[in-house]
Specification:
heterodimer, A: alpha+beta, D-Maltodextrin-Binding Protein, domain 2, 4-stranded mixed sheet, 45% helix, B: 406 residues, mainly alpha, MetI-like fold, 2 domains, two-stranded antiparallel sheet, 2 strands, flat, membrane (chain A), SBP (chain A), Maltodextrin-binding protein (chain A), signal (chain A), cell membrane (chain A)
Amino acid sequence: MKKKTSIGSLSKVSLVVAALSLTMVTACSNNANEPAGNHASGASKFDLTFDKLETDLVPEPGASLLVWESKEARPFVEAIMKEFTDVYGVEVRMQELGTMDQIGKFELDGPAGLAADVITTSQDHLGKAASAGLILPNDEFEAATRSEHEEVAVTAASYNNKLYGYPIKVMTYAMFYNKDLISKPPATMEEVIEFSQTFNDPDSNKYGFMFDVPFFYFSYPFIGSTGGYIFGKDGTDPADIGLNNEGAIKGMELFASLRDKVLPISAGDIASDIKTTLFSEGSVAMNVTGSWFIDTFRQAGINFGVAPIPAVGGQDSVTLSQVNSWYVSAYSKYPNAAKLFARFASNKSAQLLNYELTGAVPTHKEAAQNAVIQADEITSAFYKQFSSSHSAPSIPEIGSVWVPMDAAMVEIWDGKDVKEVLDRAVKQIRDAISLNAKSPKPDSTKASF
Amino acid sequence: MFLASGFAVTYFASALRQAIWGIATLGDAPSRLVEVDGKSVNIPGDHSINLMIQSLIVLFLLALYIILCIQAARDAYSTGKRRNAGLSPSTFRQTLTYLHDFKFAQLLLVLPAAGILFLTILPIVFMILLAFTNYSSPHHIPPGNLVDWTGFETFVQLFRLSSWSGTFLGVLGWTVLWAVVATATTFASGLAVALVLSQKEVRLKGIWRTLIIIPYAIPQMISLLAMKMMFNGKFGPINQYLSHFGLGELPWLTDPFWAKLTVIIVNMWVGMPLSFLLVSSVLSTIPPDLYEAAKVEGAGRWQQARIITLPFIMFAIAPIIIIQLAGNFNNFNVIYLLTNGGPSNPEYQFAGHTDLLITWLYKLTLNNNIYNIASAIGIILFIIIAAFSIWNYRQTRSFKDEEMTQ
């Protein structure tokens, strides 16, 4: 009898999952929680002012701008575009494009003059864009940007010690927990193991703790917390890879032990959308994912809280974090107007507005210290996790890391020897980097700076 | 005429020098940022990849122009001969009439031929040329950097570096196996279903046909994503029913062997309707009197199928099977959407156990920007498929004797 009910509920899961993927495929368009049409500063709970910036930079006559941003950011971008047009009289249009896809498209469209004037991306694509000469440095507002924003954000927006970006928001993942299933979030992985051993019931798909095992990005706490790292010297030295050092091996051994004690599923079967569905229907107590899922879980009616990921091997957990920033195209016809917009849409008022409309976690120090944001339990939990995170490296060599490391996560989870797998992954990364770096002409790299 | 050739000569005089310089050097100054009054300004420079394409266009135009000149010279020669023989040269109007009456087909083909030349052949040449450059991330991505010619170094890397050559041979082996098995299974299943449904005893043929066509009518991407859910080892309905009936769960997508089997099974489900349609349409063209004659001669059902049905089907379908085989070599959708190349293979460079050459190529270009290696693999893939297709097509009867179609 029990089996039968489990089958029933499971086919329901798969149905929901199928429905989810279908909606994803058909790209539902209406996710904005508030109409962004009204004058944002009027209805806001913050005291927002949008004035001309303190600079002698003026937009070129007849300037109009095109901005690329992701779908989630639309409510904010539409509001800030309106304010910018009111203040400067420059028309701004927005085109939806995921932040991960922008540099790839920009590489081809930018030099051809078809791309946006202002683009948004995170630092793991910055090195590629900067070294290919696609974006302009943030020179006009450099001093102000450096002093106003969190240092991690400034570092993330810089490449080769040169500031390029105008930071918008920080992004990382943390642990969502279902308050009805677990009253207090565990502080260590040992507590997670203990809880899971009483809570888990694979026959009815109940699991204590789930995370995206096959993705290195999400499994990084089991490397970074115990002393591993991607590249040395704060992510700038591709010759120093810390993914198979002692700390990484120690963390990965704990990671491998979770397969039996916490999540007895092979890595290839842990799919993100299934995980989301299970958490949304209250079958999973703790779910590691990014802030972009807050809305989904609210709509599912889950009584959830957010906490930092439990300590790994006695150390505070360290995640990978990214900072989204505006970047000004080197091929913009109106670079002054573009720089003004990038600055305008990343200052304190803009970041508070962004928090209010899309829940973005600010990079602006004063905005982050605002009483409303401090009192917001979820945002402050993400902020706490962010302050204990490694910034994703911005050097272009990071592109060679993801594939071998994703594969390594799967291998280790499914029982291969930790050291052997990590050593091989690091060797692959080195091979890829040395292949890519073969005979770089020193003059051509120098010439771009 | 003089005007046109004068224009062409002046055009090529200026463009050709630029084109030859462009394709020989691929530019010598990348775009760079220069500080003017403390502000960075972008100084556009040479974009190696754009230079290569522009040069190719000029060289193609030049080739066309040379062909035109040779034709004009030959025409002038024959006109002179006619004149020497005492005949008057044909007037412009006569030429037009001749063109319209006798060379109409060629006239009509000029436009599509130009299209093929510039939209198909030129890009192919461009992509082949990429294999002989160092166009790859992170140090050789224009416009901030230049791309250089490196000769055969890419191929040397591909075959000499053991990690690359191991991946290449492993992926190639699976690709060949996949193409053969995938084509054979879809064709065999389509043939079997079509033969069964063509029997007189089968009722409600319309309904059966509709049911079989349905998988073909659903967009492939959607059915493949749904399949991916169904075959999930822990949460997918297939394993749930298996364990419900007391059978063990199978690692459909996570074990190398089972994953390969799964993609073949799913591909059979996706591809069977097309083979079914093709075979059914051929069956309806076989003259019924052949079967009657066979019956009179005392042939059994099996003999009828072997002597009449199969040769008819094979004659019409063999070229299509070859096309399907070549298509399966490059069957991107099924692999990418179902397993994305997984489960991962730590011995391989950027590839998994079920990766085909084409999905590996995709990962190299789009995830890792290693364009030159990807281009080299593309060339090898092209040579294999082209050689195989040509050889195989020559073996088929529809190529050897065309009488049967008449």
